[in-house]
Design goal:
The protein is α/β, with parallel strands linked by helices and 392 residues long. The protein has helices at 3-11, 14-27, 56-65, 93-98, 100-113, 134-143, 160-166, 176-179, 182-199, 226-229, 250-253, 255-268, 284-289, 305-312, 323-333, 347-356, 358-366, 368-375, 379-390; strands at residues 44-49, 70-77, 89-91, 116-120, 147-152, 203-205, 218-219, 241-245, 271-275, 293-295, 316-318. The strands form two sheets. It has a seven-stranded parallel beta sheet with strand order 3-2-1-4-5-6-7. A four-stranded parallel beta sheet has the order 9-8-10-11, sandwiched between helices. Strand 10 (293-295), helix 14 (305-312) and strand 11 (316-318) form a beta-alpha-beta unit.
Length: 392
């Protein structure tokens, strides 16, 4: 939007914004979608939304339903779903933000048909109602007897100042402003953490590293489909190891920080380093099958969906994971995290060690599918949702 037009838009009263946006939708032939309806025969009826990052809202809904006690639906603003992850219900940002009809229908369906709402990333579940005031929206739902919870995904609750103190090479450090305005992220996250404290509702987080900022939260865990990634192709058998890196955000993943080491080993002939861009998610299982080592990220200090997919494929995944995360997940899984300890500084020596001690790392990679089964196939997440939110 032109800066002058954007400034004028923000100065316009909300009713005028709503009328203009609705008029644009009508001219484009857009209709207000009906809200997602759960199965009312189930004792627990759960709505999850509205961001579906990495398809997790949809996966958590399916995990909850595997209990047989839950009917779950997720919804997402289409603008938050650029990679087209599966979702039960899609709605445009313009509709959620400006359609009073959509907001009213969502509210009425939640009041009448749902028992629980899990709000993702502190986004307003009722779109632009009350100008997106989450506190007022939650109060409205709670007054109707709906139990509300919050789930943190990542940058929405990860405070940069804390991360900088605890994680070497934090993605909020050098060069971060070229990726995102760190000062603004700090303010936004501080507001989200204050909101969560004020709401005093059950809080869950997708990954263990987020417990640093929300120590009272429950680890929900990310969910993948292990069978999509499973394969019986042998690993670490080639003379020259195939090392693959497929970053979605090069700054966050630390791509430029690790390049000198991996290029050096590539030129030496010890590894074949392959850096991929723009590979569709549905094509990644074949990429992992053909790899010996997957390089994930070296700045966040946590692991997520990509690392789980690599472990499910029986591959060694190298990603920087803090001691805090390792302790948390080992306690819950009852087994060590299969990811070797590695940092930007130690990557070269770790890759050399993998080449020298292939049997050791082959055995370690073979534990990946079992680890994923224990924490990331949906069973763990289902039990957490039941114990700490739905049945509580």
């Amino acid at each position: 939007m032109n800066p002058l037009a954007e400034r004028a838009w923000h100065l316009a009263p909300k009713p005028l914004q709503d009328a203009i946006a609705s008029g644009v939708d009508r001219l484009r032939g857009a209709t207000v979608p009906a809200p997602p309806i759960p199965d009312r025969s189930k004792p627990y009826r759960l709505l999850i939304g509205p961001v579906n990052y990495a398809g997790q809202g949809y996966r958590w809904a399916r995990a909850a339903e595997s209990s047989g006690l839950v009917s779950a639906r997720n919804y997402v603003h289409t603008g938050n779903n650029p990679f087209g992850y599966a979702a039960d219900h899609l709605v445009t940002w313009r509709t959620s933000e400006h359609s009073r009809a959509w907001q009213r229908s969502m509210l009425e369906v939640i009041r009448s048909d749902y028992t629980h709402v899990l709000i993702e990333a502190c986004f307003p579940i009722l779109g632009g109602m009350f100008r997106g005031d989450v506190r007022r929206q939650v109060a409205l739902l709670e007054d109707a007897g709906v139990k509300v919870g919050i789930v943190g995904h990542g940058t929405d609750v990860r405070l940069p100042s804390t991360h900088l103190r605890s994680t070497p090479y934090s993605h909020f450090g050098a060069g971060a402003d070229a990726w995102a305005p760190v000062d603004q992220i700090e303010r936004n996250v501080a507001e989200n953490l204050a909101l969560i404290a004020d709401l005093d509702v059950p809080v869950l987080v997708s990954t263990a590293g987020l417990l640093t900022d929300l120590p009272g939260a429950h680890l929900l865990g990310v969910v993948i489909e292990p069978e999509r990634w499973s394969n019986d192709r042998p690993t670490l058998v080639r003379e020259r190891l195939r090392v693959v890196h497929a970053p979605t955000q090069t700054h966050v993943k630390g791509t430029r920080l690790i390049e000198p080491a991996v290029r050096r080993l590539h030129d030496e002939g010890l590894i074949e380093y392959v850096e991929l861009e723009g590979v569709a998610h549905e094509d990644m299982p074949a990429v992992f099958q053909d790899a010996d080592v997957i390089l994930d990220q070296f700045r966040v200090g946590d692991y997520g969906v990509g690392a789980c997919e690599a472990m499910a494929a029986g591959r060694i995944v190298l990603t920087h994971v803090t001691a805090q995360v390792r302790d948390e997940v080992e306690r819950r899984a009852g087994m060590p995290l299969p990811i070797p300890e590695v940092t930007v500084d130690s990557l070269e020596s770790v890759l050399r060690d993998i080449a020298d001690r292939r049997d050791h790392y082959r055995d370690r990679a073979a534990t990946g599918p079992e680890y994923v089964r224990r924490l990331h196939d949906g069973t763990f997440s289902r039990d957490v949702l039941l114990r700490h939110f739905l049945e509580g």
